Amino acid sequence: MPVLRSAPMTPDTDAAASSPSNDDQSEAFRDLSREMYWARESAARGRMDTPEIRDRLHDFAAQMRTDEAVVIPMGEGNLASPSKWRRQLKRRIWRVMRPATWRYDRLLADHAELTTSLAEKVMILEAEVDRLKAERGDDPPGESVS
């Protein structure tokens, strides 16, 4: 099966790709740039602390509960179109297909609420571990367990 390659994402990678002398290096550079681009979002999530994760999950669950109750969810970008007839057609198709997706909004909200409660338990456990470490004198309090 052939490997699909995406186009370079920045002018720097474009210039590196066009140099004839370093073709292998430029391909490796493009591959690395692409991997770094896609890993950027997950790396930012990895640096979040437990209270921030809990807050984001809580907000997501609230948004899913809201979307569950409306026919057209707020901020649905797939329904936008510059022409009026295409926008109306997309909305009609959305309204016909919407009952199939309501269940998933509810399931996503349930999952987010369960994960929020798990994050709250993790916060309690982290505080307990910090307290126990302080009693033993291992580490200063406030350091998170990794």
If you had to describe this structure to a student in words, what would you say it looks like?
The chain is an all-alpha fold and 146 residues long. The protein has helices at residues 11-18, 23-46, 50-69, 84-136. The radius of gyration is 24 Å and the shape is flat.
Structural class assignment = mainly alpha
| Count of helical regions | 4
Cα-to-Cα separation, first versus last residue: 40 Å
The overall number of domains is 2
What is the succession of H and E elements?
Answer: HHHH
Largest sheet: none
- State the total count of DSSP E strands: 0
* Percentage of residues in helical conformation: over 70%
Topology:
Layout: H1 11-18, H2 23-46, H3 50-69, H4 84-136
Helix pairs in contact: 1-2, 3-4
Short description:
The protein has helices at residues 11-18, 23-46, 50-69, 84-136.
Question: Which terms would index this structure?
Answer:
2 domains; 146 residues; 4 helices; mainly alpha
